[in-house]
């Protein structure tokens, strides 16, 4: 049901009956290593290219989520997924292996919540009984496509972020046990003229703020409603900018209940500059760590605001700025 | 004289790199833009006859940075032009820099045969 | 460069950019310059040592010793790139590794190694000059312009 201008309220409360998070070696050294279902020893995953490795990450995440719910691929009606690769090949090729009817989406790093929102809409409107929503990213594949070859000796500035090598998937159903998706706010594209691809945090923060404000405005509730509000991958720079902007606009977000997946995933001593990023970032942190905390009873209501930078390697060369978007999904126990 | 050139190569090489660092950090140029600018500057200084004295003075401090690539391209062009007239500009450009570019191509290709990216 | 961009922004965008700039960690320019100076200086000194070596043992002259010395530095950079070590040194050294010829070699080797998965012809061959192409294009073109200008001035009796 539509509430306000851009928010869906899911009256039937679609359930995330299972989820999975798969990561790479770098994530295995991170702060949330315990909350991954599978962790790989290297960035190749036994494949002969990084792009194929990313596809494998996504396949594993989906297959693990489905088997954790003691179901089969054939029971799932739709697979919604997105990633950072050109033409979202990781998702398309994973869909080929999984064999489920496929809806490919592109929201850059906001794909995880865009997928979860759409999956919940399909379930709530009784257009599906089971939907898998996934997202993935691979550090080396992303660097190769958007920035420089990995062995290139370019110096990264302190605002740069580290793309997560990981994939997350959630199996959403009409009924069952598990955290429930209560509503989702779809974001608008916001462009504040930032054009530095090494400073995504500052580019994405206004989009996150715009969506968060729309969410509270549409539902007419207060930020204190949530135990935790987590942005997808604003990193230290973007997250502090977003916090200050929200303060400036008068929205009282409690600082200890406002975090960022890119800040949670890695340890302080890992060389990630401003923090983690990538479609996989919000996916693995939400579908692994945060849902686990909910099931343990530590969190009852959370709002995940996944943020994406909608640039392409070409748009940057053509001196375009970076338009961004953020999608928010609220999950309640 | 012999040992002094080591000191000067250190200092001059260091200074040229600091100029590059300032171009990247303060003027926010990408590494590609920075190196391209330095090469063009090297070519201009070479044309003005100012780069060779620097090489004499600082040795590798001037010949190792990418600026000397621009200088060598100009020198090659002018050397051939002296012998063969204006067509020498085209035939001579890569004369001196051939070893650098060839080595880079050959060994980069060999590297791609042997190595895998480590991430 | 930033002023030209500022004119195209709306007031809200401009306000946001100033707001964001205040909150961004700035690159530590002085620290980076010191590191660039040290590493750049060391690389050039190694180059000088190589030149001395080639002059003493291989009969190169002061003018010609630069070539083999650069070639050796290029090969060393490519090896370090292949072993996955170069990018870590470069993150620390910044322009100290990028400005010497080592940076040029690294751009080619890293692109070649990375794109092997796309095949040797289109991948390695087609992408090797991805980053270094600009240096070669502008180096050659500016050398061409400078040489023609110099020759024209000479011909006009100016030199």
UniProtKB/TrEMBL annotation, chain A:
Superkingdom, natural source: Bacteria
GO molecular function, one term: acyltransferase activity
Cross-referenced Pfam families: SpoVAD
SUPFAM superfamilies, A to Z: Thiolase-like
Protein name, entry field: Stage V sporulation protein AD
UniProt lineage: Bacteria, Bacillati, Bacillota, Clostridia, Eubacteriales
UniProtKB/TrEMBL annotation, chain C:
Keyword Acetylation annotated: no
Source taxon at top rank: Bacteria
Aminoacyl-tRNA synthetase recorded as keyword: no
Residue spans crossing the bilayer: 33-54, 66-86, 93-113, 133-153
Entry keyword set: Membrane, Transmembrane, Transmembrane helix
The protein, known as: SpoVA protein
The species this protein was found in: Clostridium liquoris
């Amino acid at each position: 049901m539509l509430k306000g201008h851009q928010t869906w309220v899911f009256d039937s409360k679609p359930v995330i009956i299972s989820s999975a998070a798969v990561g790479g070696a770098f994530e295995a050294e991170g702060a949330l290593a315990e909350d991954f279902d599978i962790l790989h020893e290297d960035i190749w995953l036994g494949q002969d290219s990084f792009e194929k490795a990313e596809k494998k990450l996504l396949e594993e995440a989906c297959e693990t989520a489905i088997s954790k719910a003691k179901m089969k691929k054939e029971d799932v009606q739709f697979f919604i997924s997105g990633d950072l690769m050109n033409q979202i090949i990781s998702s398309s090729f994973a869909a080929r292996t999984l064999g489920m009817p496929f809806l490919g989406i592109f929201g850059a790093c906001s794909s995880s919540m865009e997928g979860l929102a759409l999956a919940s809409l399909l379930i709530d409107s009784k257009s599906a009984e089971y939907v898998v929503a996934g997202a993935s990213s691979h550090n080396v594949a992303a660097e190769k496509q958007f920035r420089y070859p990995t062995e290139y000796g370019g110096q990264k500035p302190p605002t740069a972020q580290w793309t997560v090598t990981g994939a997350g998937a959630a199996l959403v159903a009409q009924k069952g046990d598990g955290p429930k998706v209560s509503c989702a706010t779809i974001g608008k594209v916001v462009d504040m003229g930032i054009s530095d691809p090494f400073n995504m945090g500052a580019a994405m923060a206004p989009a996150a703020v715009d969506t968060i404000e729309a969410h509270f405005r549409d539902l007419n509730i207060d930020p204190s409603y949530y135990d935790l509000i987590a942005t997808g991958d604003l990193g230290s720079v973007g997250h502090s900018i977003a916090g200050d902007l929200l303060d400036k606009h008068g929205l009282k977000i409690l600082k200890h209940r406002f975090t960022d997946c890119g800040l949670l995933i890695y340890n302080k001593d890992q060389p990630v500059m401003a923090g983690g990023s990538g479609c996989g970032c919000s996916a693995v942190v939400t579908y692994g760590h945060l849902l686990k905390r909910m099931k343990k009873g530590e969190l009852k209501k959370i709002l995940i605001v996944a943020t994406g930078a909608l640039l392409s390697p070409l748009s940057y060369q053509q001196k375009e700025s970076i338009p961004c978007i953020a999608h928010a999904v609220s999950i309640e126990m | 004289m012999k040992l002094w050139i080591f000191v000067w190569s250190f200092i001059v090489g260091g200074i040229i790199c600091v100029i590059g660092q300032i171009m990247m950090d303060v003027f926010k140029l990408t590494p590609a833009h920075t190196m391209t600018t330095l090469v063009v500057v090297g070519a201009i200084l070479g044309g003005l006859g100012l780069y060779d004295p620097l090489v004499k003075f600082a040795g590798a401090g001037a010949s190792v940075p990418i600026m000397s690539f621009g200088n060598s391209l100009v020198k090659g062009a002018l050397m051939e032009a002296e012998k063969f007239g204006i067509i020498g500009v085209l035939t001579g450009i890569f004369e001196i820099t051939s070893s650098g570019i060839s080595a880079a191509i050959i060994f980069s290709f060999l590297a791609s045969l042997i190595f895998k990216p480590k991430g | 460069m930033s002023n030209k961009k500022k004119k195209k922004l709306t007031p809200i965008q401009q306000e946001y950019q100033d707001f964001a700039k205040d909150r961004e960690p700035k690159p530590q320019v002085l620290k980076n310059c010191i590191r660039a100076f040290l590493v750049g200086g060391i690389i050039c000194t190694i180059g000088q040592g190589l030149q001395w070596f080639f002059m003493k043992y291989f009969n190169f002259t002061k003018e010609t010793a630069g070539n083999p010395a650069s070639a050796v530095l290029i090969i060393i950079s490519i090896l370090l790139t292949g072993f996955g070590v170069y990018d870590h040194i470069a993150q620390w050294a910044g322009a100290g590794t990028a400005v010497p010829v080592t940076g040029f070699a690294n751009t080619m080797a890293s692109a070649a190694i990375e794109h092997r998965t796309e095949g040797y012809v289109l991948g390695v061959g087609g992408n090797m000059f991805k980053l270094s192409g600009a240096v070669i294009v502008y180096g050659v073109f500016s050398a061409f312009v400078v040489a023609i200008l110099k020759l024209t001035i000479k011909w006009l009796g100016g030199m």
